[in-house]
Amino acid sequence: MELKRKRNFTILATIGLIIVVLLGANYIPSLSATSSMTLHTSGKNVYDANGNQVVLRGVGMAGFLPNLIFWGNGQSDGWDRQWDYTPVPEMDATFQVMRDTYHINYIRVFVYPSWWYRENIIPNVEAPSSQSSTTPVNIKTYTQTLCQEAAKYGIYVNIVPYTLVPWTGSYDGDPYASPSMSWQGLPGMDWEAEPKAFLNDIGYGNNEMAFWNWFWSDVAVTLQDHPNVIYEAWNEPGWLGGDLEPIPAGYMTYLQTMYNSIRNVNSQAIIEYQWHMGWVPNGWNADLSWCAEIQNSFNPSNIIYTTHYYYVAGWGTDNSQKTHGSWGWATDYDTLKTQVLSSYNSMGVNAPLVINEEGSCLVASDVLGLSRQDSYTWFTNLLRVQSDLGIGNGAYYWIGDKLSSAYAGETLLTTGYTPNQMGSALITSYNTPTNPTEVPTQTVSPTNQPTLTPLPVNDLISNNNFLFDCLLVGLIMFVLIVVISIKRRRD
Q: What are phi and psi of 26, to 5 degrees?
């Protein structure tokens, strides 16, 4: 009898210990994967916390936080997919396909700072002509969920302000909506009437930089437990429109304000900077020496510089595109590589370059009478060049062809998750990697590289509360089993 009791005790104790181990093992990998997603730069490369080089391959998402367009397996995109309050299943299905089929490791998402300030966004208030729901969507909670789900699949989230307030064409009920879709002014410089009204009404009309300090501090605090976030200063900034226009002092102040606000919360997060709308090889915006302007101004660290590549831009009636041969782009690999290298070497800083928006507006191409095949060839060879040079890419957009009227043919999909010809080029560019090419040495401004430090224990715990809860429950079960077994032995 005594032997049987000892055997029962041993069995019960072993079962309890196994429960503890299994519960912990089930969640420890997610802890490790999340913490290792912290990025840092060294020279022209990007690395994760384990020292592995990371080449950013991404896509742009349709919509604005918190109404991005997600859909699940067997579904398709559409305007009805916006304003989904709990899109976790659709997020997970999308991120799995992005990772496993398209080999994507980041998404780029737009945000209106005015929405972030207001926080609870009501669809029927913003867009009464198309939305009936009166249930508020919390933009901060939505963004935290987005980053949490993306991290499960090793995907980074690049967040960037598009304009200060929404556009009347999509959000006709927003109290501060502007008739200007993509250019309403520039931080630190000046604004049109609607953005000015917003800043005045919330008390920042006479101190705009105080608003930007609040905005970027609040974004960083809200997302501080998500090391897969990349913070980008502004989408396609410019002021007077000159191709070699230096960065105005007011906008430079904004860039430094953004940098300091984030660094006060997160010393290691990646920050991205851009100047001008994009780069084209005929001399317009081809010079990236503005990167050195920023670096020499306040010596930021852990910085990625960005610009945009388009074979055909979205304004299809602008015949200057046709006159200049689709902005002067070559389509063959060798000439394209020469064009990209020329711009790459003009940066004047030893820092990474990511083209976080690129593609070709096929509807505009049709209007101009240009061949779509030229766009396909250009995109295919451009991706090869970027792979060879270690330059990251960001294809536009993660939507199907049926929404191309709104996005000027900048699509990667047909229906569901099936790639169109541009999407197929993106997949193939990963499946057939080529040998990296050594970038010629150049005289550059040094960058200040941060000293990497482990994530604080509190951060690890807050990221993984469920892990510790499970371990605690398992430990309690183990102790109870032992106590019960000892009691039975005494009885």
A: -65, -25
Q: Taking the alpha carbons of 222, 227, 228, 230 in that order, is the dihedral positive or negative?
A: positive
- For residue 14, how far is the Cα from the chain centroid? 46
Q: What is the largest CA-CA distance in the chain?
A: 97
Amino acid at 341: L
- Pair type for strands 190-191 and 185-186: antiparallel
pLDDT at position 317: 52
β-pairing, 120-121 with 137-138?
Answer: antiparallel
Burial class (CB in 10 A: 0-12, 13-18, 19+), 471: middle
Q: Are 411 and 454 in contact (CB under 8 A)?
A: no
What pLDDT shows up at residue 463?
A: 40
Report the Cα 178 to chain-centroid distance in Å. Answer: 25
The C-alpha R_g of the chain, in whole angstroms, comes to 25
What element of type H or E holds 47?
strand 45-47
pLDDT at 322: 53
Contact 311, 374 (CB under 8 A): yes
Q: In angstroms, rounded to a whole number, what is the distance separating the alpha carbons of residues 462 and 472?
A: 15
Q: How long is the chain?
A: 491
Do 341 and 439 contact (CB within 8 A), yes or no? yes
Contact 313, 361 (CB under 8 A): yes
Provide the pLDDT for residue 235.
95
Structure-token pair, residue 26: 């089930």
Q: Where are the domains of the chain?
A: 1-38+467-491, 44-454
**Per the omega criterion (within 30 degrees of 0), is the bond before 417 cis?**
no
pLDDT of residue 367: 79
Please list the ranges in the chain whose pLDDT falls under 70: 1-35, 241-243, 279-285, 314-327, 404-406, 431-491
Contacts of 150 (CB under 8 A, 6+ apart): 91, 95, 107, 156, 157, 228
Considering the entire predicted model, what is its pTM?
0.82
d(C-alpha 291, C-alpha 428), whole Å:
31
Q: Which two tokens stand for residue 243?
A: 């191709």
The C-alpha atoms of residue 82 and residue 479 are separated, in whole angstroms, by 49
Tally Cβ neighbours within 10 Å of residue 138: 14
3-state class (DSSP) for residue 273: strand
Residue tagged 């909670």 (tokens): 141
- The pLDDT, as a whole number, for residue 454 is 33
C-alpha to C-alpha distance for 336 and 344, rounded to whole angstroms: 12
CA 19 to chain centroid, in Å, comes to 38
Ranges assigned E (strand) in 372-477: 392-395
Quick one: DSSP state of residue 445?
Answer: B
Give me the pLDDT at residue 357, please. 94
Q: How far is CA 252 from the centre of its chain?
A: 22
The fold of the 44-454 domain, in CATH, is: TIM Barrel (3.20.20)
- Eight-class DSSP state of 248: P
